[in-house]
Please model this.
Amino acid sequence: MPSRQRARRNLRAVPAASVVIVGSANLDQVFRVRAIPAPGETVLSLGFSTAPGGKGQNQAVAAARAGASTAFIGAVGADAFGGVVRASLVEAGVDVSLLRTASAPTGTALIAVDDSGENSIIVEAGANALLSGVTEQDASALRAADYLVMQLEIPLDTVAEAARIASAAATTVVLNAAPVTTLPEALLGDVDILVVNEHEAALLAHGRDLADLAPVVIVTHGELGAVLHRAGVGDSVVPAPNVEAVDTTGAGDTFCGALVAALSRGEALEEAVGFAVTAASLSVQRAGAVPSIPFRHEIDAAR
Model:
């Protein structure tokens, strides 16, 4: 765990979840194709399905299924898709008392998945773009939590504000910097654990040592596993099991949710990364985002 000293945590408030996820929620529309189309190319779909998704929702479900008491702060529309999203979170055991209903439609994602399990995704933010500011209830939940997890599919100002509030209350701040963008130094200063893939790591580092970005930086490498970077400690490689991928959608989010679930029950950092790598390897063997996320007993059995 990061050693950064923080102010004493405030008394717990409702919802008193160990993990709070602030982020996006979508309804995914998934097309199975033999190959992802090139620009100007038309391909026929081999199958179509819809399922809950969005990085925030994926990570909340992953944390809950991996055993963590989890609350979600996000926004959906007053439409049928919003009802599907809310029901999916509730079914997973996620506290949705802070889920907002916005004036825009629920976010959607158009996903093409090819025969090798690789994907191409177009996201319409919808209600996610209206997740502005942190309410008093939100702030209370952030201060009461052990872990805050965020991504970058919601307004960056909201991410920064939530991180600042959580950091001041000694809540461990975990940022999955995806989709990657330039991050303010003040936001990075509030992050304890930064989770990125190889591409995101290269764009954020700009030639700096990765360990300078946050006390802990975890770089995911897909089928190769993950590398743990800590200043003054050196790098640790956590390999992934050899599996055949069916669909990589949501694998990174599964990693993040499983990681904080393991940390929240007291697992050491490297053990928690191993748990998360195993969870992600299980998710890629199934189709869809939320439907592919494993439960704790499945992850434990596969370790």
In short: The radius of gyration is 18 Å.
